[in-house]
Structure formats: structure tokens, C-alpha cells
Write a structure and sequence with these properties.
single chain, 133 residues, alpha+beta, 2 domains, two-stranded antiparallel ribbon, two-stranded antiparallel sheet, 3 helices
């Protein structure tokens, strides 16, 4: 799980930076997307195997009671009224897995990763050639 926690901020930063990326950076990001995706899936599978269960994360809404105020100009009063707001929290729950199936998936990822890496390297070279700095 530690590797996932370290990877998440990097992925979030990459997503934010891709919005203002140069054409070359966007091309390189697109070229390495599949490779990075499989690397992430491998990290998830390794974490699941190490724990013996998967983690399901979902966003759950909840209501926060609060009080708002409005002016009543006719009676020269400030009147309170309830104005609840909806907020969200992230909830993580353990999910049972078939560890042998996770190991099979991990082995499959490990088989295809070198091909994806080689393909990504070729595409990155094409990006560099197409968008020189």
C-alpha cells in the first residue's frame, strides 16, 4: 500500500500538468500511457497479494447540518434557517480476493511489460523527433 500512496500524488500531479503540457510532453505522455497503466496494475496486484485482500475505494456523501441567516428588511431582523450541505469522504474497505488469480494476473502483467516498454521507447523517440525543443 505504501507504493500506491507514493504513486497517487505523482499521478495526480501528472494529470494536472498534462493540462498545460507542451505538444512534446503530451505526445510522450500518450506514448507511455499503456506502460504506466500496466505498471500501476502490477503495483496494485503486488499490494493485494502481500495483504491477502484488495482495497475498494469509493466516495460517500454525507450531510453536514449548518445554519444560514437571511435579512428580513420588513421586520429589521436577521433570521436563521437550516441549510445543510452535502460533503464527501473517501471510504476504503477490504475486499476478498483469490490470491492465486492475483498471482496469475501479476505474471501476465510481467510478461507484457517488456513489450510495452519497448513500444513506449520507440514512440517516445518519435515524439522527440516530431517535436524537437
Amino acid at each position: 500500500m505504501n507504493s500506491r500512496l507514493k504513486l497517487f500524488p505523482l499521478m495526480a500531479a501528472a494529470a494536472l500538468l498534462s493540462a498545460c503540457a507542451t505538444p512534446r510532453e503530451q505526445c510522450i505522455s500518450d506514448a507511455t500511457e499503456q506502460y504506466r497503466s500496466v505498471e500501476s496494475a502490477m503495483a496494485t496486484a503486488q499490494g493485494n497479494i502481500a495483504r491477502g485482500y484488495a482495497l475498494h475505494t469509493q466516495t460517500v456523501p454525507y450531510t453536514v447540518p449548518s445554519t444560514c441567516y437571511r435579512n428580513d428588511p420588513y421586520r429589521n431582523l436577521v433570521l436563521p434557517y437550516p441549510c445543510p450541505s452535502t460533503q464527501y469522504r473517501t471510504q476504503t474497505t477490504p475486499v476478498a480476493i483469490d490470491v492465486s488469480e492475483e498471482r496469475r494476473k501479476l505474471a501476465d502483467y510481467q510478461k507484457i511489460l517488456p513489450q510495452l516498454k519497448a513500444r513506449a521507447q520507440v514512440q517516445v523517440q518519435q515524439c522527440v523527433a516530431q517535436f524537437p525543443e
